[in-house]
Design brief:
The complex is a heterodimer of chains A (about 525) and B (about 375). Chain A is an alpha/beta fold and about 525 residues long. Chain A is built from 14 helices and 23 strands. Classes of the chains: A alpha/beta (about 525), B alpha+beta (about 375).
Chain lengths: ~525, ~375
């Protein structure tokens, strides 16, 4: 049996699952020290399921803390940025087009050094060990504890990044070092951006991992901890601690995986309605659809896998204004809904009030809505449906109307039909879809290599790369019996027809219990 | 040449509009202009004013050289083009010819090679000519108007990050292209190139004129429309059709969702087909054939636009041009076409850059003849 937890900005949800079956679920408020809320939620879910903590063999946790820290620029650490690429890549400096406030938080600690590889994996320029050590001393003297190292063509050959890390760690064991080949593929600027962000999230990463460990200990669970990442697969907590950037944007992915699991749908649009925002994404063959090549995270170009979701400012707590014209959101009373919403005796008209007024749900005191005309309620209710229908249509892959699945705490806003939708469904336990998504996610491994199709047969080269990715996933905790490739990408590196190709394979499998 | 004759000065505030225009003229190819934008931003920090010269004002005896990066797009996003190496190439050109370079000309008007030459000009302290050799992006070097006019790319200088150099000198541009492709691997998959030494006279005979100002106008039109919350695509079409002395026919051809994307990497090329379906009537589709750039748009049996006319796919909401490698399944897009510059529409040019040169089974019909004016 295993437990899935989702730490959101408002609520912390937990589910207890046995295989594919949900045995118990709980929803509690998120606490400032998250471990308190996590423990509370886990205990409630275990009670609901009638399961003893000792029966839990694995704990899977997803959190929005990284996403929130980035968008609110909170608790970002100063970081040193080392480039191993001289004499190349001088034409673009690090963080050039970043939002100024994030760049300022990270600081102007940029170091250039020789190093890196050619696209063939051969040395581009040799690493100067003494120079790296001198940089380490300088960084340490400044009191900086996190370093981002990006080497030229490191996704093809990472030897120099590793050697530089070793030199620094030997001299300064407390230093957190992020290596770019661990966070991204080819595309120096995008990969470096991701590396720097990860270094800046170093302190939060340590903190989140510590909170998780404390929460599980208090809940008397001694099982290994896995953490949800942005592509919808799981990583070990120890890896998450070092690579917190992969926790970014995991929330919408988890709700989609949870919706897929609870509904059995393979192709559908998932609408996750929260208190302030609604995330809309698409399931394709049972998995969240990924964004194309480059994705922006807080207006910073990155190149890692993220679900293709759109966020709209609509939630259960969204404010409704009629003066002079109907306006919905973007403000929200969020977790104060039960104090400030009209039906609860407050003075802020919210989307939830409209749902109650339109007879979609029975909540609070409906008579308090007396001052608002029937026409206005109908107009707002219709607009809310239009907004969701339009977003769902934009995320719909196919040219035929989509099956729409509603999840999250705010599903009561929407009725049984939406324009241009094949069907609209709400799910049992849909309000804890995120936690379910965390609990049922697969463990993934990646392999990136360069092959010459002149020397090696293409099919053989891909087969070998797939085998390496599968072994990697199994090593990380996936059941080898269930591991299968989830993505195979070939990128031509050469001008010459059919010559060098980078093969990137991701494989994932169910957790081995 | 006197920089006083500069037609206008390009400033940091122009970069976004310029990059938008370069992406638009890329016709789906030319590579992601993001890196080019960063490189230009950085050079503009040090030197915030670049003189851009009208080709008509260039003296016949001026010495001009073409600048651009050569290599696989996937290498150029990792080992970024290097401005110092371009400057070194310029120095070698001057040493070799014994003549001082007076100005730089971009080899193409679309993608990353539209912005790189401007960064190089800033660093070298040279003006840039408001012209180029393609007026858009094309997949092969002999598709330049300079080559169509019979001018040689040689001597061509390829410089790497270490400042090491290969010089290619042939009497045949197709041969030069083949030699570049074989040496570029040994140089690490990409290199900084200086090619097509031109005199002012040759420039005036062969260049596609006013491409930098066209890029700027395209970008400014879109930004202004966005600012006024108007439809940028409509604004662009109107801008081209009404453009003062040199109107160019333009049309919004289709709006829909990418419903099939079958594009494979073959050597240095992205080759394949796109299908875009109408949002409300999925049986109404348009199809685009691609070789790095968008070559032809068909709807049913009817051709809507064909190379060398410029065919660009933009995001339906933002109107941002989308390069072929960034297009994704399910994306909501608009297809826009723009008449190619006249120099690309002569029989001599069409033999090199027309539909038959891309093995398409149709003859060239001008965009304006395919649509109601």
């Amino acid at each position: 049996m295993r437990i899935g937890v989702d730490v959101g900005g408002t609520n912390t949800d937990a589910v207890v699952m046995d295989g594919d079956r949900l045995l118990g679920a709980a929803k509690t408020q998120t606490t400032p020290r998250t471990n308190i809320g996590i423990t509370r939620s886990i205990k409630k879910a275990l009670d609901a399921a009638g399961v003893a903590p000792s029966k839990i063999r694995a704990a899977m946790i997803g959190t929005t803390q990284i996403t929130n820290a980035l968008s609110e620029r909170r608790n970002l650490a100063q970081a040193a940025i080392i480039r191993l690429c001289l004499p190349a890549n001088r034409a673009v400096s690090p963080m050039m087009d970043w939002p100024a406030d994030i760049a300022a938080a990270i600081g102007d600690n940029i170091y250039w050094a020789q190093g890196g590889a050619q696209f063939t994996g051969a040395t581009f320029s040799p690493l100067d060990d003494h120079k790296i050590l001198r940089i380490g001393h300088d960084v340490n003297k400044k009191g900086i504890r996190h370093i981002a190292i990006t080497g030229l063509f490191s996704p093809v050959q990472h030897r120099m990044e590793k050697r530089a890390a070793k030199i620094i760690r030997n001299a300064f064991p407390h230093m957190g070092v992020t290596l770019s080949h661990k966070v991204g593929g080819l595309g120096f600027v995008e990969r470096e951006n991701t590396t720097i962000l990860n270094a800046a999230l170093g302190e939060i990463g340590l903190n989140i991992a510590a909170e998780f460990a404390a929460a599980l200990k208090k809940a008397k669970i001694s099982a290994p901890i896995f953490v949800s990442q942005n592509d919808g697969t799981l990583m070990k907590a120890n890896f998450a601690r070092q690579y917190p950037i992969f926790m970014a944007k995991s929330g919408p992915t988890n709700s989609m995986i949870g919706a897929a699991h609870l509904s059995g749908a393979k192709n559908a649009v998932v609408v996750d309605i929260g208190g302030t925002t609604t995330d809309v994404g698409a399931l394709f063959d049972g998995a969240p659809r990924e964004k194309s090549l480059n994705t922006d995270l807080c207006d910073i170009r990155t190149n890692f896998h993220m679900p293709d979701t759109m966020s709209i400012a609509l939630g259960g707590g969204s404010t409704i204004v009629f003066d002079p014209e109907l306006r919905i959101g973007p403000k929200s009373v969020a977790r104060d809904l039960e104090r400030r919403g009209v039906i609860f005796g407050g003075d802020v008209l919210t989307a939830t009030d409209i749902a109650v007024g339109a007879g979609r749900i029975n909540l609070g005191d409906r008579s308090r809505l007396g001052g608002i005309s029937r026409e206005k309620i109908t107009e707002a209710d219709r607009r809310i449906h239009e907004i969701v229908a339009l977003a769902a249509e934009q995320m719909n892959l196919s040219s035929t109307p989509a099956e729409i699945i509603l999840v999250g705490g705010g599903t009561c806003l929407i009725g049984e039909t939406l324009a241009r939708a094949k069907s609209v469904s709400q799910l049992e336990h849909g309000n804890v879809a995120n936690a379910v998504g965390a609990a049922v996610a697969r463990i993934s491994g990646e392999d990136s290599s360069v092959a010459s199709y002149r020397k090696t047969d293409r099919k053989k080269a891909i087969k070998k790369a797939v085998a390496r990715a599968c072994r990697r996933a199994a090593k990380l905790g996936a059941d080898p019996e269930t591991v299968a490739p989830i993505a195979v990408e070939e990128t031509s590196l050469s001008h010459q027809h059919g010559d060098r190709v980078r093969i990137r394979v991701r494989a994932a499998g169910r957790i081995m219990l | 040449m006197n920089t006083e004759t500069g037609q206008f000065i390009l400033r940091p505030g122009d970069i976004d509009a310029l990059v938008y225009g370069a992406s638009f003229l890329g016709s789906g190819g030319g590579g992601d202009p993001y890196i080019g934008r960063l490189i230009l931003m950085r050079e503009m920090e040090a030197a915030p004013a670049l003189p851009v010269i009208d080709p008509a004002a260039v003296p016949d005896d001026a010495n001009i050289i073409g600048i651009g990066a050569v290599g696989a797009p996937s290498v150029l996003i990792e080992r970024l083009p290097n401005v110092d190496s371009f400057v070194y190439a310029l120095k070698r050109v001057e040493q070799h010819s014994g003549k001082k370079i007076d100005a730089i000309i971009p080899i193409e008007a679309g993608g990353i090679n539209a912005t790189l030459p401007l960064a190089v000009a800033l660093r070298a302290g040279l003006p840039v000519i408001d012209a180029d050799g393609m007026g858009r992006a094309f997949p092969e070097t002999q598709m330049m108007t300079f080559s169509i006019n019979g001018y040689l790319a040689s001597p061509l200088y390829l410089v790497d990050d270490h400042g090491d150099c290969t010089i290619v000198e042939t009497k045949d541009n197709a041969k030069t292209d083949r030699w570049i492709r074989s040496v570029i691997d040994a140089m690490g998959g990409a290199a900084m190139a200086a090619a097509y030494p031109l005199t002012g006279k040759m420039l005036k005979a062969a260049a596609v004129r006013n491409t930098i100002s066209t890029q700027l106008n395209i970008g400014r039109t879109v930004y202004a429309a966005r600012h006024k919350k108007r439809d940028p695509v409509k604004a662009l079409v109107r801008h081209f059709r009404d453009h003062g002395t040199e109107p160019r026919f333009a049309a919004s051809l289709f709006t829909g969702k990418v419903s099939d994307r079958n594009i494979k990497i073959d050597g240095a090329f992205n080759i394949g087909r796109l299908r875009i379906s109408d949002m409300r009537n999925p049986d109404d589709v348009c199809r685009i054939a691609v070789k790095n750039e968008n070559l032809i748009v068909r709807q049913g049996g009817k051709v809507l636009a064909v190379v060398p006319d410029i065919i660009t796919v933009v995001d339906a909401d933002s109107a941002d041009p989308i390069t072929t490698e960034n297009l994704k399944f399910g994306q909501r897009v608009k297809v826009i076409a723009l008449a190619a510059p006249d120099v690309l529409r002569t029989p001599k040019a069409l033999a090199v850059v027309g539909p038959r040169a891309f093995k398409l089974k149709c003859d060239y019909t001008q965009l304006e003849d395919l649509h109601d004016r």
